[in-house]
Structure formats: structure tokens, C-alpha cells
Amino acid sequence: MSSSDPALLTLTEVAAALAAKKLSSREVTQACLDRIAVAQPKLNVFMSIEADSALAAADAADAALARGDSKGVLHGVPLAHKDMYYEAGHVVTCGSKIRKDYVATTTSTALQRLKDAGTVRLGSLQMSEFAYGPTGHNAHYGAVGNPWSPAHITGGSSSGSGAAVAARLTFAALGSDTGGSIRMPAHFCGVTGLKTTVGLISRAGAMPLSQSLDTVGPLAQTAEDCALLTGLMAGVDPADPTTSTRAVPDYLAATRGSLQGMTIGIPSAFYVEDLDAEVARVLDETKATLAREGARVVEVTLPEQRQLTAASQLVLAVEAAGFHAQWMRERPQDYGPQVLMRLQNALGVPALSYLEALRWRGVALAEFVAAIAGVDAVLAPVSPVPAPTIEESDVGNSLNAEAVIQRLTRFTRPINYLGLPALAVPCGFAASGLPIGLQLFGRAFDEATLLRIGAAWQRATDFHTKVPEPA
């Protein structure tokens, strides 16, 4: 692997190199396409690869820049995104058979804002069917292989996004996080992923799964990259009335802050229970490094988190079934067995239970915010284990499917239920060579603090710089 390969640069680095004309968009785009050609047959990362149109767009970007016409900070940067972000004129499968030929007539707001900043489209990335699966399995299009070990899962549902960023096939990728679907691929694949506060980034034109839990966010190499992307996408959108009207902070400025004076809480229970020994070791090592870098690390007692996990699962299940009710009646045979089972199971949830779960959220949020009043952020594992193998987690609609799903996602769901932000960052490796990530979570709309801690952590460590050998 040549260190001169432009595909190995971070998003922030390549954007600066393009702006300074040290690299051309064609050079950078071709470098990504060359890596994609090698990786795709082994990892199954892309849903569509659009090489010819990507190179044509790169040439157009270079010509515009030569005229002094820059579209924005990402002018000429090639990116690919999870195949659930509508882009007018393009097929958007949502990882499903039902939508395998669906051509979007509108473009999602998040995607449009990145296009407006000058990005070039490489294609679209694999995902779990309808974003409803934490492992990355897909009954229609196959599992995505983990670039660190293709026999292991990437995590889902943003499976292609996590794998593509880890393998340096794209500089960043949009994912979505409804029950952990950005943070789990970040953890399993060794990249950085930001689950944003509900309402920070517009969901207009993004495939819905759960209207009260869905969030849009980036996966990239670094916290700095995530800050750049979040700043571009965040902000009020008339097409999504749930977006916040508050001013968008300068997230990039926040990433220049240090760990000095920061107080980071470690949960006294739940998130530290039943951990794989390797995950527990990485958590201990991370605590020690944070303290050495100037952070104050303290124990924090959170409200009961199991109830939050259960409430999150209930709300997600019912709202997903609501979106899929007509297709379940008319096209049940076109769903994968696990997704169909999970959607059908939700039809038996009493309406009263769903309403109680919604009503309790405000109380639970107030208790949670009070519990973390003395810290800037909380540090916890994303999942209790490193990536399992594709084979051992391929449970379909078997009786233990929900147990497997619950085991992987129990540490991510509470934050989804509360609507809060969380940043997953690479923090180490298991003896097997598989990456291990941890998550930082905090207060609503305080992504800036999480990104500050994440960026400072990455200046002190090099886990985010590690690149898997080509599969």
C-alpha cells in the first residue's frame, strides 16, 4: 500500500489538497475507484458503482476550480452514501427487494447540502434491508464483509458506510442511527461515527424507519471529518418540520479544544457489565489515556438503562411496522425473513404500551440529564463484544434472533430513546486484530463537546489512522 495513495487522506486533508490544487478531483476519484475495484468482489460494500459519471463529475469539478469557481469546502471530493438517501434520478433500493427499482424524484436535504458543498458521487453503499438490522446481513444482497476480516460482520444497518470508510473507498459516508446503526459499524470497523441529536439534521428525503428515533449522521476517519460534515448538514429545513431552529455551532472550531478541564463520566453499572475481556481492557486503557491527557475521569451513576433499551425497542418496532403495514399486507414474500418477523411481531404490541413508552420519554430524559450534570460527557462501550463472524450472527428469523440483536444493541438503544447525541471513536484492537470502539454521549445539541473530546483523543492516539490490509 503506497503512502502516496490520495485515498488514504482524511476528508479534511483531501478537501484542503483539492482547494489548494495539490491534487485534482480526477486523481482522487480514480484513486477511490481503483480501491473499490479491488475491494468490492471481496467485501460487497457497494450497491452501485458509478465510475464513468463520477470521473465526468470530477473533470467538471477540476474545470470549475481552474476557472476560480469553487462550489464549497468539499469541491471535488468523491463520496458514497448509504443507499437510503434519495437522489433525484437515481435508484435508491433501501437495501430491499421491494424498492430495488425505485427511482427517486427528490433529493434528501442532507445529501443536497453535501452536493451544494461540491461533492462528487461515487455510487451508493450497501445496508441492512430497510435499515432494520444491527449485523449488516442482507437476505437479498448478501452480507458486507468487515475490511479487517471479511468473515466478520461490519455491524448495521449502515454496513456499507462503515466498511467503505474503513477500507478507504470513500472519505466519508452518510449513515443513519435509529438503534445504533452508525455507532455499531464505527465500532466494528474501526472508524468514527456521529449519532446526532434528533432534530439537528433534516430527515427529509431519507428513508424513514422510526419517526421519533431516526437520525442522520456521518461516518468518517476522524472526529474532525465528522465535525466538517455535520456543520454542512445541520440546520433548519422547511421540508422537515422536526428540525431545530437553533443556530448551528462551529463544530470544526470545537475540535481544536483540548482535554484539559474536561470531566468524563464512566457508568457505574449496565455499560460496564458482561463485557468481553478485550472490550473491558480497551475501556480501562482509554480511561487511563484520557486522564493522562488532562481529563478528569469520574464514576457516574445513571438511571436504570435496561428500561430505556426496552422502551427504545418498543417504539422503534411499532413505528417501523406502521411505515410497512401496507407492504406487509401486499408483499410479505418480498421481505427477508428476519425483517418480516420483526415487523410482524410489532403488530401484537398494544397501543397503550406504545403510548406509555412515548409519554415516559420526557421523564426519563430529565432523570438522565440530571444524572450527568457533573460531567461533560459519558464514556461507554458501543457493544459488549468485538465483531462476531457473519456465520455465527446469521440467525435469520430463528427463535434466538431477538436475543442476538439485543446482545449487540443494548448499549446503543438508550441514547436513541432519549434523542441525545453520541460519538463513536476507535479506541483499540482485540488480539484477533478486530477494532474496538467506544462511545461518548452527552446533552441534546451538544455535539460540539463530544467532537472536541473525540478530536483531542485522536490527537493523542493513532487507532483512527490504522488501515486494514486489502482483503
Summarize the entry for a quick read:
The chain has 471 residues and is of the alpha/beta class. The protein has helices spanning 11-19, 25-43, 51-66, 109-116, 159-166, 183-189, 223-233, 251-254, 277-292, 306-330, 337-346, 351-371, 401-409, 413-418, 447-460; strands at residues 46-49, 78-82, 120-125, 172-176, 192-195, 216-220, 263-267, 296-300, 377-381, 422-429, 435-441.
Describe the structure.
It is a single chain. The mean pLDDT is 96. Strands 4-6-5-10-11-9-7-8 form an 8-stranded mixed β-sheet, sandwiched between helices. The longest helix has 25 residues. The protein has a single domain, classed as Amidase signature (AS) enzymes, CATH 3.90.1300. Helix 2 runs antiparallel to helix 3, helix 10 crosses helix 11 and helix 10 runs antiparallel to helix 12. The protein has 471 residues and is α/β, with parallel strands linked by helices. Helices cover 39% and strands 13% of the residues.
